[in-house]
Amino acid sequence: MFDPLTDLVDLKGKVVIVTGGNAGIGYATVRHLARAGAKVYLAARNEERASNAIAKLREDGFTLGNGDVMWLKLDLSDPRDAKKAAEEFLSKEQRLDILVNNAALLRAPYEKTKDGVTTMVTVNYISHFVFTRTLLPRLEDTAREPNSDVRIVNLTSAAYKLVPSTISFKSVEDFNVAFSSSLLPGFARYAHSKLMNLLWTKELQRRISAAESPAPITVIALHPGGVDTFSQNWPCPRLSSWLVRLAIADPERGAYTSVFAAASKRIAENKEEYNGVYLESKPTGRITKVGKLAASEELAAQLWETTEAFLASIGL
């Protein structure tokens, strides 16, 4: 029953960042939030693709004062670059109302970056952790303004349920599990990174709420559901898209849960109910109980502490 044309708060005067906003769910999320009046920073690595996406939006009437969209260079392959991108944003804007951490790798070969962590975990989790941590003071300042509604939205996946219960995050090497005995090791590594995002979301909300002077920020994780972000690359793309979308959503609808989490009126009216929750897409924005592994406060704290120790070791 969710309709982004009628069920979003008024975002005029609000500032938003969407990572991975140049295509797929991210692009559709940018479009929905800009339509509601927000000034949206489309955070992406490739300038040409970002510029093409923004040009398309501006052709559709998204301009300054009417859902303006602009590029923020964000390379998640190195957490140092993620920090630089956040600092670049902070030099431009005095407020941040909504952060949507959408970008992710679904597939990547098993390889480690120069810092000794796999590319999948670096892009899907660690760089977003750094990006958010750097932006958090601005989010907190905005949240302390009268009538604020500040939200951090992290996209995860129901695939987290496939991660074995023996997993731990006691050391950085626990970030680099290869899952070589799995039938689909690449997908298992993706699920692992998405479990990290879900645990991080819950720990971030806990820490924000437990602060001495807590800022009213709502942190939400979500699974967007099955979304067709790939059929345009298949042979006969028109036919392929038509067939695929008989089974799963197009990006416009596939972004509904992200947009619900970012700006729905329902959350604005029931903020405490949504603190630290996990949402799924059927129906849009359904609060869903997580499994035992994702609900573990001990595991979430362990992940946080190991992440912080790793970042300190590389000078961040």
From TrEMBL:
<dbReference type="InterPro" id="IPR002347">
    <property type="entry name" value="SDR_fam"/>
</dbReference>
<keyword id="KW-0560">Oxidoreductase</keyword>
<dbReference type="InterPro" id="IPR036291">
    <property type="entry name" value="NAD(P)-bd_dom_sf"/>
</dbReference>
<protein>
    <submittedName>
        <fullName>Enoyl-(Acyl carrier protein) reductase</fullName>
    </submittedName>
</protein>
<dbReference type="GO" id="GO:0016491">
    <property type="term" value="F:oxidoreductase activity"/>
</dbReference>
<dbReference type="Pfam" id="PF00106">
    <property type="entry name" value="adh_short"/>
</dbReference>
